[in-house]
Amino acid sequence: MNVGGKLATFLITLLMVSLSFMVFDIFLVVSWNLGSVLRHEQENVGIEVFLMDDAGETQAHNLADLISVMEGVRSVYYVSPREAEAIFRADMPDQADLLALLGPQFHLPASLQVKLHPRYRTSERVEALARTISGMDGVDDVVYGKEYLPGLTRAVSMLEKLVLLAGLVLAVSLSLVVANTVRLAVAKRALTVQIMSIVGAPGWFVRMPFIGEGIVTGVAGSAGSLLLTAAVSVMLSPSVPHEFLPWSWIVLVLALGACSGAAGSWIGMRSGIPRPRR
Amino acid sequence: MVISFQNVSRYYNDWPALERINLQLEQGEFLVVSGPSGAGKTTLFRHIWMGDLPSSGTVEVAGHSSDRIGRRDLPLLRRKLGIVFQDFRLLPERTVYDNVALPLQVTGTSPKAVRRRVFSLLAEMELNHRRASYPHELSGGEQQRVAIARAMVAHPVILLADEPTGNLDPEVSRKVIDLLVEINRTGTSVVLATHDPRQVPAGVARFIYLDRGHMVNPNSWDGYDQL
After folding, report:
1. Is the CB of residue B50 less than 8 Å away from at least one CB of chain A?
2. Which domains does chain A have, with CATH numbers?
């Protein structure tokens, strides 16, 4: 085959691999952005402990000390009635007049803001912790996003499983795409493979160029898909605000490309190199 | 003994390509395998380089047995063989030099040793002036000489030539046969498959005749004439 023909075949292969990978890249971008929203929500998961009106500042600090040594608690912050009022005024400036209407005797309750370690931000663990805290002296009420937390936990877990499953399915299907391509390449170079084999070339010597070609095709194909996806991402950015993939995921896509290429070549070579038949 | 076929049969979907073949070849011997198309000559050759394995019986070649040979042993066997085909099977994108050097390059021979051996062999074959040419730039006779040079470059124990003169005119064919005889005189065992055993000078070789997978009148040149 002439150089032009070889280049055309390589480019067609590259395009096929790129388009296959692009489906995966788009899925990753959507997953990444959805994951960002979920992660942001999860970071805010915590417990707000409202104290009884008669609980003084000393009791509040004692409670804070007790809670801060509980398993899964990262930090405890005491919000005094004065600070609560300042937060209320800052968060809801339109309703600040309401406080004046209620008179000088009224004050917002003091509270403890309990932050949790990331792996304790699941609905079961937060609920268990909240139950323990609500039974403590001086505690009036405990609030922790009871309604949305189970759904959020499920969504995060499902998204993680979905990305993993899609990654596996795509790695296998891309390996088959590359395997078919390499099988064609082996068929086109059947004479070279046959002569190499007949003159006593070891198996790895015959396979190496094809494995190398598979890895290059996989990496180039995945890089091409990332470029195409980035272009689509830039075009959609003004109407659908989102983030592109982080570097660690880009490296992961390229590594997946290399692995699929190598695996595909290996599969392709198994059926491409003649073996003695009995 | 460099080749031994012990009661070898080979079937392709119940069709017998070889039937109960018994054959021995001593070191330095010249064996001519003759017979019509489809007689089993190429199948016999494929069993020598173990591109095929027998359905029953045992083939032993240069210390390797078809009963025990593994995938990793095949390259070791094939490095002891030189193989020449009717259609030359030269790599079109490689020059004469690179085609001849291939068997040494795949075994990791140093470039210096490869150069020395290839230049010496090309000179012997009167192909030195063609070393930078590509196969399509050569005549049929030259291509076959390059194929023989490639087969001989790694000092094989056995040279297998499967119809090497099939695509050549009588004058060039005679030169190729002379070259094979010359190679045999240096101690290399030669197995030649040909439609026309009369090309080989009498007294040089042992002849066998294959017909529909069967060996007929082995070891008898006269017997062949009567067939």
Report:
1. yes
2. 3-40+152-272 (no CATH), 46-144 (3.30.70.3040)
